[in-house]
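Standup notes
- DV: blocked on the single-chain target, sequence here:
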Amino acid sequence: MKRFNKILIFTLILLIVQACGTGQSAFNKGNYYDATIKAVKKLRTKPDSKKSLALIQKSYPLALEYHRQRIDALGASNHPDKFIQIVDTYKLMNNMADEITRCPAALNVLKPVVYYHDQLKKAEQMAIIEQFNSASNLIKTENVDDARVAYQKLKWVKEVSPAFSDIDRQIAIAKDLATFKTIVVHLPEAYTNYKIDSRVFYNVLFDQLAKSGTEFKRFYKPDLAEELQIAPHHIVEVQFIEFSIDALHEKINTKSYQNDSVNIGSYTDKEGHEYPVKGSVKAAVEITEREVMAKGIVSITIKDYQTGDIIQNRKYPGDYIWRNRWATFNGDERALPNDILQLTREKQNMPPSPQDMFMLVSQPILANATSYLKSYYNKR
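- DV (later): unblocked, structure below
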């Protein structure tokens, strides 16, 4: 127990030394803000830490001076986001004051702490106009990436000044321009050998894409896109360009089985004891195997809506083999192995319909095509 207590004490001391060292390390690198915050956190757990008290008396004034100089430099610059950066800087300075105020040990050696509420309010008023005008210019480019930046700027304006003129309409415009829109189109099958409905495949693929949509990524079916008057960025065409079903293949095998250790009767000795009689039993088996293979290929074409140019075209093949296996026999079923006996209980079945075969073929195709499209549009 004493050994455990010693280890625990040593560990606590080590953590304290590391915490203090971390603050000093930040100070040595010129990161006076982090040094101040870490020293405050240390003083909350150990108010009499001489190292932390000494550190915070050096780091806090230097942090204030550094951020004041940064604000002056930004104010004199032509940086397009200078006022929002000044706002962020004042928030850091006020946060230091809050942290120190809530730590008696730190407050005792740093009175008075400095708040910049009035300066922050004035900077926010300038930043609101700056960010709104910047967002308006970005919206004019009608570029997706620019619109996404504009959307974030306008959201900030809305948060700081909810009643700012025209803010809600501008946010809606920015969000619409920031959203990458894709219309997914079903094209009729490029073959007439079988009467199938490939829309089932298309609907499942579309549903999975729609579920993968995000705030700035949307997929539409043509009818809804027309109703909403959507001007998309891309058109995705989904078309089965091949589907075939091979002829039925049948194979029949015959085999004989014998079991030499089967109870075929019993006998009783003179003393009345009964004993089993072992003997051989035989059976002739006819095993029938039927196979039908279906194949399909779907074409996924991504086109630029404005130019009609093909951006990507991929083809995804798939196949499925339907099997039916059963057996009949003559003789004693006790001669049959378990797997063959199970086959004798199977029945002859008819192959699935073309539509059912199509659905079975389309399952692996669907997984590959959907994975490709999701991966492609995750980058948009």
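- Follow-up: Strands lie at 180-186, 217-220, 234-245, 249-268, 274-304, 310-331.
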